[in-house]
Amino acid sequence: MFDRDNMVKIVESCGVHVYDTEVVSEFDKRVFRLYITSKEGISLDKCAEVSRILSPIFDVEPPLDGEYFFEVSSPGIERKLLKPEHFSASIGEKIKIKLKDKEKFIGILEGFENNQAHVRLDTELKVISLDSIEKARTYFEW
Q: Could you tell me the pTM of the whole model?
């Protein structure tokens, strides 16, 4: 049976962290996607290393029932902020937020505590409860 904690330990032994996992359907195929991060960034070689280590384990203890494809990826430069730990790990970064009331803004995530994001919008510091956020992601100005 799939053991997420064991997967996390194995990934961390490679010098990276589990950011998130997702199961998606693409071209009528199910994909189990593992997103990894590190302060130094994620290379293609690191994704391949993690994949090579986890693939034989997943052959014995699959993360999904039935047929699926396994992918290891970086969450990207503009990554979704879905969990409290995603916000905590993104302090100091520019983020884009859409609230449930449809208000949208871009600012710097200055802090995160008690499930509240502290976002600097020019001269104003806005404290936003996670419950009021519809979507949030890091933001990169090209």
A: 0.80
Long-range contacts of 122-131 (CB under 8 A, 24+ apart): 128/97, 128/99, 130/84, 130/87
Structural domain that includes position 88: 84-138
Reported as a single tens digit per residue, the pLDDT across 40-91 is 889 999 999 999 999 999 999 999 999 999 999 999 889 999 899 999 989 9
Tokens 């960034």 identify what position? 41
Nearest to 95, CA basis, from 109, 80, 111, 74: 109
Which residue among 73, 92, 110 closes a domain? 73
Residue whose C-alpha is closest to residue 131's, from 99, 91, 97, 107:
99
